[in-house]
Design goal:
It holds the Pfam family p450. With 313 residues, the chain is mainly α. It has one domain: Cytochrome p450 (Orthogonal Bundle). The chain is 59% helix and 11% strand. The chain is built from eleven helices and nine strands. The strands form four sheets. It has a three-stranded antiparallel β-sheet with strand order 1-9-6. A two-stranded antiparallel ribbon has the order 2-5. The protein is globular and about 50 Å long. The structure holds protoporphyrin IX containing FE. Protoporphyrin IX containing FE (HEM) binds next to helix 7 and helix 11.
Length: 313
């Protein structure tokens, strides 16, 4: 997405996902949701973190942005997973391609229904905001709203569960950090940022070269496909002292896990808020549960724990 459509969509999301709306509207909703999911964990002697917390938390918080009923989580999860595995897979079978096509058609129908519902019953969500805007300069068609909603659902739900699993993975291996959090000498935000730096969930960003150019002494030709490796940039020792160490107290924190340039993540403020809230609620879980075994990591475009089993101490 580029040009005017990109500008309009960016400005709509920014207006709805930053500043006082975040603090006054979304923070209490996310805090309550997180409390109820953490309480569900405490009912269990053992659980798999990604499916019992990470995926649910990331998807349900995103549902609030576009007013999707929480009861539809399994339906949406199944279809979004099919699209994500199509978008990030290297060896795609015909079966996976067909599943992704069907999923995107079904999601389109579901979101068109939501748009029509929001027209008769507006809510406090991004779709209602777009529909009720009077400014004819940035009116979006229904199909543009569908694309925007799908962008948000995929972009917002894919990385968040991975960051949370990484955060607790680092807490298990850096127990002193839990003490620093309790004393207040380290913030939850700093732990989230250091985890994002060391293990970025969006791992690899492809770009197509538009014009012949030279970058850092390397000639790039029009039509070349290049892959930007975010974890490599985030561990550049020109910028980060002891780059492979987990150190939430490090002074220089400017990782590029939210991307850079015109396509930089527009949900970063929202993500930082939801991640800090969740980590604060999950830290006591880390003290009451232990790892059954170290997590399994997977993925190339997006990368994170695929299975992470914990059990009560
Ligand atoms: C930890 C959480 C997140 C991470 C690490 C992350 C990372 C990224 C990265 C690296 C990009 C740039 C991709 C590129 O250059 O091709 C991006 C773009 C984007 N992100 Fe996020 N994201 C996160 C959460 C979110 C959330 C919560 C939302 C929405 C609520 C969101 C919405 C978007 C959108 C719409 C774009 C496309 C922006 C554009 O093309 O201009 N992201 N994200």
């Amino acid at each position: 997405m580029e040009g005017d459509e990109h500008k309009i969509k960016n400005s709509i999301i920014r207006r709805n996902l930053t500043g006082s709306i975040l603090k006054n509207h979304y923070r209490p909703i996310i805090t309550n949701l997180c409390d109820s999911l953490v309480n569900e964990l405490y009912q269990k002697k053992s659980f798999e973190f990604t499916s019992n917390f990470g995926k649910k938390f990331s998807l349900l918080t995103t549902f609030n942005l576009i007013s999707i009923s929480h009861e539809r989580i399994d339906w949406f999860l199944e279809r979004l997973s099919a699209i994500a595995s199509f978008a990030t897979g290297f060896e795609l079978t015909e079966e996976k391609i067909q599943a992704a096509l069907l999923a995107s058609e079904e999601l389109e129908v579901a979101i068109l229904e939501l748009i029509s519902e929001r027209r008769s019953h507006p809510g406090n969500d991004i779709i209602s905001f777009i529909i009720n805007k009077n400014d004819s300069h940035d009116q979006l068609s229904d199909s543009e709203i569908v694309t925007l909603s799908l962008n948000i659902l995929l972009a917002a739900s894919e990385p968040v569960d991975k960051v949370l699993a990484n955060c607790i993975y680092y807490l298990y291996r850096n127990r002193n950090c839990i003490d620093h959090l309790a004393e207040g000498s380290c913030s939850y935000h700093s732990v989230v940022q250091e985890s994002l730096r060391l293990s970025p969930p969006v791992h690899l960003i492809p770009r197509l070269i538009e014009n012949n150019t030279c970058f850092e002494g390397i000639n790039l030709k029009e039509g070349n496909l290049i892959f930007c490796l975010i974890p490599s940039a985030n561990r550049d020792d020109k910028y980060f002292y002891a780059p492979n160490n987990f150190d939430p107290l490090r002074k220089f924190k400017r990782h590029i896990s939210y991307g850079a340039g015109m396509h930089t993540c527009i949900g970063a403020q929202f993500a930082n808020m939801q991640l800090s809230i969740a980590l604060q609620k999950l830290t006591p879980v880390v003290e009451k549960y232990k790892e059954v075994k170290p997590p399994e990591f997977g993925g190339i475009y997006t990368r994170g724990a695929t299975k992470y089993f914990l059990e009560r101490i």
